Amino acid sequence: MEAMAVIGPVLAVGAxxxxxxxxxxxxxxxxxxxxxxxxxxxLKGRSEAIAYKQQGAEALQNLNETLxxxxxxxxxxxxxxxxxxxxxVQMFAMSEGATEAQISKDNAVLALGEGYTQxxxxxxxxxxxxxxxxxxxxxxxxEAAYSAGKLAE
Length: 153
What we know:
rod-shaped; mainly alpha; 0% strand
């Protein structure tokens, strides 16, 4: 009967040790999941930055086409395209096109920064999850050690 009384507590100690191992694995799995989310956030930021750069390039292409049309119309109408109202329209188009291109460039920088910031947040969450799992595992080991100590009494 004495042996039967010891088996239960020994199994409880073993279960606590197994629980600690499981807690560590859960923490690692959570950290891996957060790392994947971080990588996705960074990729999304880079992708959005590329889209904004493309948008800026298109704005400059549109500006080039607009300037060509203004010069062609002025020339076809017998007007000097480098002076007067033709020049004024060109300056306005250049101002608008340059502003749109710069906004796209700024948006690209912001998208890239946001992606890396979000990635950092996910990595921090992963680190916290791993540390929390380590603490939980340490508590389980401590409980197992306490139970083992009680057995030795």
